[in-house]
Amino acid sequence: MDATFWAFVGLVLFLAAMAWIKIPAKIGKSLDDRADAIRKELDEARKLREEAQSLLSEYQRKRHEAEGEAEAIIAEATHEAERLTVETNQALEDMIARRSKAAEDKIAQAETQAIAEVRASAADIATAAAEQILTAKVKDKVADDILSKSIAQVKEKLN
After folding, report:
1. How far lies 73's CA from each of 70, 97, 126, 155, in Å?
2. What InterPro entries does UniProt report for this protein, alphabetically (predicted)?
3. 126 Cβ contact list (under 8 Å, min separation 6)
4. 159 and 120 in contact (C-beta within 8 Å)?
């Protein structure tokens, strides 16, 4: 008997002991358990992926909605700014027109007042001149009456 024979006998005894202890069944059960655990992990990963995909699509939808709202807000703000610009320009034009009208009214009033002052001054000068002329040419009581009436008439007509 040589060493090869004893190695063969040892191998047979080892395999018989493994079969008797049911090692192949335990290895198979262990592999089955491992396959089940991997299957569960894959199912869990698939569920997580689906949830992540769902969250991603929801966030993308919300982002699109937010972008739409932002664009609407920007458009509204632009429209409001344009409207306010038009209103402000119109108000400025109205204010300029009112101030121009007020300035023209003041100028017209000043002209009217200046004309009235010139007329009054002219009337006073004419009255004084008429008084001097009449006092130099007409004398006595008749002259005084005529002079008084004339002065009164000139004052009434000039004012």
Report:
1. 5, 35, 77, 75
2. ATP_synth_b/b'su_bac/chlpt, ATP_synthase_B_chain
3. 154, 158
4. yes
Amino acid 143: pLDDT = 67
The answer for 135, left when phi > 0, alpha when psi is -120 to 50, beta otherwise, is: alpha
Total-model pTM: 0.42
Comparing 53 with 131, which gets the higher pLDDT?
Answer: 53
Residue 92 has which token pair? 């400025």
CA–CA separation, 102 and 141 (whole Å): 54
CA atoms within 13 A on the CB side of 36: 6
Decide if 115 contacts 95 (C-beta within 8 A): no
Q: Which two tokens stand for residue 29?
A: 């059960």
The whole-number average pLDDT for the span 64-78 is 95
